[in-house]
Amino acid sequence: GSWWGMWLPVGVRERVTAVHGGSALPERLRLYDDWADRYEQDVAALEYRAPHLAAASLTFAFPAPPAEARLLDVACGTGLVARELHRRGFRCLHGVDGSAGMLERARSTGLYRQLWRCVLGREPLSAPAEHYDAVTVVGALGEGQVPSAAVPELLRVTKPGGFLCLTTRSNRSNLRYKAELDAALEKLERQGAWQKVLAQEVERWERATSKEESTQGTSYISGVVYIYQKCPIPLLEEG
């Protein structure tokens, strides 16, 4: 009975640790398939606030009436982000995920107009260039998940002037990835590909699954929400 264990129902910690572990991609996708049925109750136990925080931030930044906007929810999982966006007036939602099990759950919500399977980082998005008014990647930018090298592919399918909402965690085991991601985001900004609208640090992102991971003196880990706006006039690539 470790000190953080009392916060989490049995099995939650194991399932979370497994998907964030170092397993190869096919195995990790299988873990997500198996997790789909229990995913929402598990993240509720974790007090996982990213879908709410991301949707609120995007809505705040978004100038246009959201009902008309075409939005791509990348790594959509069971549809938690779609639910939050739908509550805020977004109606034209498309989703992609690497896990067939997760997509099945997302489909059952009825919130998406289109859903398809795509393992980002391994394959491009099967969407035309400059197609979406907004793109979200909530919770999947992390060690062993969507690589930071996939960010330009997110930009490709975003309209000039469109918005991208990205989140990542600041817990210890994700720090190397976060540094890599931040470098990739900053490089794209220097190249004039997009402008940063918001970077919001959030202390209580979700419950920690171990003491090593937790933010100093709490039983939570921290995270960050980024909002970027794609530049209307793409500058020429460097090099």
UniProtKB/TrEMBL annotation:
Stretches of the chain forming a coiled coil according to its record: none
Database matches in InterPro entries: SAM-dependent_MTases_sf (IPR029063)
Pfam families (alphabetical): Methyltransf_23
Name of this chain's protein: MET27 protein
Originating species: Bucorvus abyssinicus (Northern ground-hornbill)
